[in-house]
Design brief:
- Chain A is of the alpha/beta class.
- Chain A has eight helices and nine strands.
- In chain A, α3 packs across α4, α3 packs across α5 and α4 crosses α5.
- The longest helix of chain A is centred in the C-terminal third of the chain and has 16 residues.
- Chain B has twelve helices and no strands.
- Classes of the chains: A alpha/beta, B mainly alpha.
- At the A-B interface, β1 and α3 of A face α2, α6 and α12 of B.
Chain lengths: ~240, ~260
Amino acid sequence: MTENAITVQSVSKQFKIHHENTLFNRFLNHVHNKKDTDELTILKDVTFDVKKGEMFGIIGNNGVGKTTLLRLIAGIYKPDSGTIQTSGSMIPLLELGTGFNPEMSAVDNIIMYGKLLGFSDKQIRKRVHDILAFAELERFADVKIKTFSAGMYTRLSFSTSIQIDPDILLVDEILSVGDVSFQKKSFDAFMSFHKKGKTVLYASHNLESIKNLCDRALFLQNGRIGHIGKPEEVIDAYTRTLSDT
Amino acid sequence: MNIIKEIWNKRLLIQTFAINDLVVRYRNSILGFFWSILEPLLMLTILYVVFTQLFKSQIENYPLYLLLGLIMWNFFSRSTGMSLTSLLSKAGIVTKIYFPREILPLSSCITALIMLTFEMIIFFVFVLIFRFIPPTTIILLPGLLMIEFILTLGISFPLSIFNVRYRDIQHIWNLLLYAGFFISPVIYSTTTFPPKIRDLFMLNPMAQILEMSHNAVIYGTLPSLFDITYLSSVSFGIFIIGYLIFRKYQSKIIEEL
């Protein structure tokens, strides 16, 4: 039996929706005993696990809770009930360029980002060269990144995350950005990352890439798990729900 | 206890945040980091001129009294002011990566502490200029700064978290700071006040800190045991309550960022 990299045990998550209200309206609501907030259930009793070294896909419609699930796993949000366990170092790649400061150079940003993820100065500096090489930005090492094009920015941040070499990578729909050659490159990077026995949790709308990349997948439907299993089955189940409605 | 270990493990991140906040201030300026010395130097010089030449004071060694008070007060107002927006201004990071959120107000306070260090250097330059020989009680100053740091952090925690939900806090707090400046002995001294009124003033922990540091650094008198006990317990009390509030509300309020 292989070890689990991520274990999600009957996790539920609700959000409060705050209705934008004037002070006067809030006062009226208070008088009439109406609430200013609604509860919105995003995830209900979600249970699954990801084995070590697995490439695991998550699909589902917009707003179904994919990002919330990733944020819960990353520890950014706390579940209302249930537990989540992860083992090994983890990088959440929920957005490209998190924490990047446009006023700082590429190298400074790499170091800053590495520190954000809890790596030491030394560990990061060793990798700066590889990161820049992968991103094809060696010439721009000491240029302020506010002058970078969107593509350069994307390459830099993706390269930083993948070269820092965590045990688990949480990826949220980011490969759809960037040009074809970058997409190909990041696809390859994922594969080599995967070959090293690392775990990837990958949320996407790109069913083709889920089918090609993932060992297993799940699809989320109304905050619950619609189906878990082989990517083909999951995609079938998902597309069936689409044609039903 | 776990959280202390977790924060200790992230000390590099705290250092980065604290120093970046400082560096970013002076980005794109020609003098760059020199501003961190030059700015307080000019500021303190202006205040010195205004309060010693325009308003004559009876207070002994008034220029140093004034400078020290301003530096101690600046630390308090900067720390709390920067902590106030620390979570909001880093919303992009907070919602994408996990790290103990305590780090943000903490590193704001450390940024202010670094700025205080620069100002202290200037203070001691003034000490030399005035050919003033500080009394031995000056060794109490680091201890007083530590108490001030704890008090400040204790106030910064709840400010940073509640300002996410209620932006009113930042306006209220700025007003309170403004008022606080005048009810604390920064530009004046309470020694001439009637005892009853003075006791009332001294309930304010910042007034205690200011007076104790004035006494320790300039007049060579030790704080009374009663005062120091009062100040320490109020500061630690505020710290503990502030931190518990932060812990209680942080996970829910983070979701609103």
